[in-house]
Amino acid sequence: MVLYAYRAIRLFGREGQIKPDDIDHFLARLLTFSVLAMFSVAIWKNTPMRVFTLLGAYLCVLEWRELKAGVWDKPTLFRRHQRYILASYFYVLTVVSIVHLKDELPTNLRWLWPAAVGVFSVWMLGGNRLSIMHKAPLRRISQGAISRWVVWGIASMSLLFGAYVVYDLIYGPAIQGQT
Questions:
Q1: What is the model's pLDDT at position 146?
Q2: 3-state class (DSSP) for residue 72
Q3: Rounded to an integer, what is the distance from CA 132 to the centroid of its chain?
Q4: Residue 86's Cα: distance from chain center in Å?
Q5: Which string of b and e fits 70-98 if b means at least 16 CB within 10 Å?
Q6: d(CA 14, CA 75)
Q7: What is the pTM of this model?
Q8: Higher confidence at residue 44 or residue 108?
Q9: Which of 13, 61, 69, 113 has its CA 20 to 30 A from that of 178?
């Protein structure tokens, strides 16, 4: 996901509308093959793997739809960057959750809560909110304000979770020899 985010922001820096290049088609194929590999495991594995496969399939649909458009404007490139940088961030958050919330949450919840927050964040930043968000007084809220709220929300959640991880590392049962 970091590769996709980096590619999008690099293209964002160019002037005018950008046409997808061979590397963009390669990355789309790579994403598709990765999701197909995940699907082959999801058939026999657990709920989180199935959910991640569905999310990956959705990313593939977005990727191929944007490639099919043939031209990327600045807003599209910025949305791509946001989508993929948040996907990579919430992947890392999932790994931290799996490791540090083993005693606190059931397996599926430990794996999926970061994905739920990530999907909501990407949805809010994408400007594709449901029509309920466009009713007064919510329609007067600018996309910039929503972006700031989402970023502050993610930062606050990360600080709180990070503080818990530090607490867990200092006072957890593994440190005290209780495991």
A1: 86
A2: strand
A3: 23
A4: 4
A5: eebeeebbebbbbbbbbbbbbeebbeebe
A6: 13
A7: 0.81
A8: 108
A9: 113
* 3-class DSSP state of 14: coil
| Helix 74-100, helix 2-12: angle, nearest 10 | 150
Residues contacting residue 115 through CB under 8 Å, at least 6 positions apart: 51, 52, 55, 90, 94
* Mean pLDDT of the 107-131 span: 83
Which tokens hold the place of 65?
Answer: 């739809």
By residue count, the chain amounts to 179
- The answer to whether 4 and 89 are in contact (CB under 8 A) is no
Cβ distance 93 to 158 under 8 Å? yes
Amino acid at 60: C
Query: At 18, phi and psi to the nearest 5?
Result: -110, 135
In angstroms, the Cα distances linking 119 to 51, 79, 82, 96, 114 are: 11, 13, 12, 18, 9
Q: Using an 8 Å Cβ cutoff, are 17 and 71 in contact?
A: yes
State the pLDDT at residue 15: 87
Residues 6+ apart with CB under 8 A from 143: 127
Q: What percent of the chain has pLDDT over 90?
A: 55
pLDDT tens digits, one per residue of 98-111: 988 888 889 899 99
Compute the average pLDDT of residues 75-80: 89
Whether residue 126 contacts residue 79, with contact meaning beta carbons closer than 8 Å, is answered with yes
